[in-house]
Amino acid sequence: MTKPVPTHDLMAQAQRELAAAFDRHLTAAGFAELSLPLGGNVLRWLGDHGQRVGDLSRLSGVSKQAISQQVRYLAEHGYVRLASDPGDARAKVVSLTERGHASHRAALAAFTAIEEELARRLGHGRLGDLRAALTAIGGAPG
């Protein structure tokens, strides 16, 4: 009898598949330089008013140094802009450019398409079970 694949390996493989599907969708939409980590760590947290780099670090759970590198990369590629925080000249506020807003719309479309594909592959009932299991494991995202 073969030993079952450990749950953490299955979850890691599912994450790799999600990232690959996301990358394919974003590349097709004209945003090849984006990735799931860049979107999850920085872009998803930027609304109309932006965020401080330190707040992005706290929200994403990634070090300030790593967030600063990701922000620099995104700025070089035209997705975000940096400005001095009016309340604290030492702090920088990161906000979306028009390209950043467009990439956000493309990311939402990608996630919708990926979820629709999962519903086709698993069926709505099993997808609902998966969502319930993931919610029980990690709670709702912040």
Question: Which key terms come to mind for this protein?
Answer:
single chain, 142 residues, mainly alpha, Arc Repressor Mutant, subunit A, 6 helices, 12% strand, elongated
Written description of the protein model:
By secondary structure, the protein is mostly helical. The chain has one domain: Arc Repressor Mutant, subunit A, CATH 1.10.10. It is built from 6 helices and 3 strands. It has helices at 7-28, 36-41, 53-60, 64-76, 98-122, 124-138; strands spanning 51-52, 80-85, 88-96. A 3-stranded antiparallel beta sheet has the order 1-3-2. Helix 1 (7-28) crosses helix 5 (98-122), helix 3 packs across helix 4 and helix 5 (98-122) packs across helix 6. The longest helix has 25 residues, at 98-122. The protein is elongated and about 65 Å long. The mean pLDDT is 91.
Spans of at least 5 consecutive residues whose pLDDT stays below 50 are none
Tell me the total number of β-strands.
Answer: 3
CATH class type:
Mainly Alpha
Q: How many DSSP H or I helices? A: 6
Radius of gyration: 17 Å
The strand line-up of the biggest sheet is: 1-3-2
CATH architecture: Orthogonal Bundle
Main sheet: strands, sense, barrel: 3 strands, antiparallel
Tell me the CATH topology: Arc Repressor Mutant, subunit A
SSE arrangement, N to C? HHEHHEEHH
Oligomer: single chain
Task: State the shape.
Answer: elongated
Summarize the structure.
This protein is mainly α and 142 residues long. Helix content is 63%, strand content 12%. The chain has a 3-stranded antiparallel beta sheet with strand order 1-3-2.
